[in-house]
Amino acid sequence: MATMTRWDPFQDLRSAQDEMAQMSPMLAHALGLHAQQGNDRTTTTAWAPALDISERKDAYLVAVELPGVEADDLEITLEDGLLTIQGERHFAHDSSEQQFHRVERRYGAFRRSITLPAHVMGDEIEATADNGVLQIMVPKMEEATPKRIQVRPGRAEILAASSEDTAPS
């Protein structure tokens, strides 16, 4: 009797990725395939959530995709112009009744850092989370507008007054 095996078109790609990760750790890290050692001696693939950075006239906006991450599991810090978003997405299905055939979503700790321009107001950064998207608004400082100095005709009284102060008595 012949045994039928289901063909997986992505198996070759996954095998190639695994081989690249073993041959070149730097390339694997660039592709997001690097592994982290867990505390239960299992190896999990590290992940970095996708983010968008946009700019308005008055602020920079950072949007980070974090479905399944609770607000309590997030930490956002600003230090020396470096905005750091870190946290953890927990694997919620620890049931012994379930057997997983594939786990493609990423779980575990993550950390993203963004260098901000010098002209931001760090004390007024606001963050909100809704529908799995973290929104961070980083307000810009008001730009210094050049002050126009009017030139008056006539002899400068400042120069005349200063020469009187320095005249010998």
Q: Helix count, per DSSP?
A: 3
The geometry reads as: elongated
Distance between the termini: 124 Å
Give the helix/strand class: alpha+beta
Largest sheet: 4 strands, antiparallel
Strand content: 25-35%
In percent, how helical is the residue content?
10-25%
Strand order of the largest sheet: 3-4-9-8
Mean pLDDT: 78
- Rg over CA atoms, rounded to whole Å, is 29 Å
Q: Unreliable stretches, pLDDT < 50, 5 or more residues?
A: 34-44
Q: Total strand count, please? A: 9
Order of helices and strands: HHEEEEEEEEEH
Topology:
Layout (H helix, E strand, L loop, with lengths): L10 H13 L1 H6 L4 E3 L5 E3 L5 E5 L3 E7 L8 E6 L2 E8 L18 E8 L10 E5 L2 E7 L17 H10 L3
Antiparallel strand pairs: 1-2, 3-4, 4-9, 5-6, 6-7, 8-9
Provide a brief overview of the structure:
With 169 residues, the protein is α+β, with helices and mostly antiparallel strands.
What does this structure look like?
With 169 residues, the chain is an alpha+beta fold. The protein is built from three helices and nine strands. The strands form three sheets. It has a four-stranded antiparallel beta sheet with strand order 3-4-9-8, with no helix packed on it. Strands 5-6-7 form a three-stranded antiparallel beta sheet, with no helix packed on it. The N and C termini lie far apart (124 Å).
